[in-house]
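Input chain follows. Return structure tokens only.
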Amino acid sequence: MIFLQLLLFCIVFTLMVKLGVGKNPLNGLYFYPKAVQERVYELGLTDRQTVQRKRTIFMTAFFIVMLAALLVIIGLWNGVREFPAAYLQALLFLEVMNWYDGVVIDRLWVGHSKFWIITGTEDIPFVQTWKQVLKKRSILTLIWIAGAAVVAVLDVLIFGIILKG
């Protein structure tokens, strides 16, 4: 069951990215390295304010949807009401999401799809190297140790207290 839930969670993650970017990689320019962003600004394809606005909208929606999905899986679907179990499940989901993002999204999808190439920036590397992925994901692994505690507290508060009646 947990494998199915992890798969669904990663599908939601992927759909959020696809919806956020739509049919134009410029909609996700905030995901790109600074060198690519600067070239895009120089080319006049978009501006910093537009990118910042899109980033804020996407990240807010992404955070809300992914947190809600996680709480629904842990609290409603799995019926977890105790902090230790909620913490372990949240940690598992957040760590799988973290590495899924680095390997499947960044290296496979972005790294092997022409969709993500922005005209005029073809000469600038935009796909993270394996070394960069490992470094970033290792740091995020540590961050999610704390993030899982926040999710677990929310699970206990929402489903352990409120739904008890």
